[in-house]
Amino acid sequence: MKYVMVSDLKTKGKFKLFPATAYSISPFDHGVLYGDGIFEGIRIYNGRIFKLKEHLNRLWKSSAYIGMKVPFSKEQLSKAVASLARKNKILNGYCRLVVTRGIGDLGINPKKCSIPTTFIVVDQIALYPKEFYEQGLPVSISSIPKIPRECLNPNAKICHYENNILSMAEALKKGAREAIMLDLNGNVTECTGDNIFLVFGNTLYTPTTRNILAGITRETVIGMTRKMGLKVKERDIKPAELFRADEVFLTGTGAEIVPVNKIDGRKIGRGNAGPITLKILRRFRAETLNPKNSYPIQ
Prior knowledge:
globular; 9-stranded mixed sheet; single chain; alpha+beta; 7-stranded antiparallel sheet; 8 helices; 2 domains; D-amino Acid Aminotransferase, Chain A, domain 1; 16 strands; D-amino Acid Aminotransferase, Chain A, domain 2
């Protein structure tokens, strides 16, 4: 049996453990009604929580952006995630940490929510089957523009994901597994759940953080590849450049590092995982096992 950890108005703001199928979030929770909340997706490797400090730092920045205080300290949340991983016997898996505005009324007024709802889920994850990491992932370019940063800060990881979901639904209809989203100026931003990199020779190109989520896996890859002797440049990228790249790959907590083999049906590079992508993937997997990068569940 799997368990979840929840703190809300009903638990009087204290964490309680519930069987995963036994707890029901209130229909008056503003996370349910309006997507008003923040979250982090976090990986667990070999009994250690990867980049937990970085994830919690970003959660705090997201909470500041939406004007909502996280009702626990970072150390309390670290211990809660570790405790739930132990309870669910997860040594390698995924944690979803969510903080919503909390239970209120049917209006949008955030001040009607007295106590934020916090819940933690720890379980297994397999975002893509193994063959996609060897053969590559087919993606498409979305016709739906990404919400501009003037409307919503992309570096706040908030629960409102409809823009991404609509782009993903469009991609699935085309037979793709991910969608590349463009900004209002036609520049490449990111995918619905991943950042994107292009490889030309020994140089990696990735969009600036102006209108993307500065992903933690993305930052790990940038730091790691520079140590590997590769160059990394952050700049605006036009869609036409995608088709000229030697390799294209995506990065994200759930996806890790996954190569792209086709974009809108057109082959990228040699049509499977390129040598640079595979080299980075191997190095990244070694990084996930470095104790300096993680928090123990025991």
